[in-house]
Amino acid sequence: MTEAARLLRYARKRARLSQRALAAKAGVPQPYVARIESSRVDPSVSSLSRLLRACGTTLEAMPGTGEGVDWTIFTIDMTPAERMTQARPMAEWIDTVERARATP
Fold first, then answer.
1. pTM of the predicted structure, to 2 decimals
2. Every domain range in the chain assigned CATH 1.10.260.40
């Protein structure tokens, strides 16, 4: 099963939509949704994005496993407590950004 198929099926089921309901909501034919979910066709990014939006979710680029991780910190000899102390300022900054994003 392709990633697009897995993603779309999960989003559709989470939104509690049938393939027919999703197709109507997104303005595409129901067989197109079925072909995507059965991995018979790979949708364009814009088509997949439109279908996911109809499910109430979005398509976001996420780094792959291990990508975007600064592994150098793991090569430094530190205790877990020292690692937490070093990570705290970044965690606080992320928290501040998330709170700012949530504020209307």
1. 0.58
2. 3-54
Q: Say which CATH class 3-54 falls into.
A: mainly alpha
Q: Please state, in angstroms and rounded to a whole number, the distance separating the CA atoms of residues 87 and 29.
A: 49
Question: What's the rounded Cα separation, in Å, for the pair 35 and 31?
Answer: 6
Q: Are 50 and 23 in contact (CB under 8 A)?
A: no
Residue-wise pLDDT tens digits, 12-56: 999 999 999 999 999 999 999 999 999 999 999 999 999 999 999
Cα 39 to chain centroid, rounded: 19
Q: How far is CA 86 from CA 70, 81, 96, in A?
A: 13, 9, 17
Handedness of CA 49, 50, 55, 58 (dihedral sign): positive
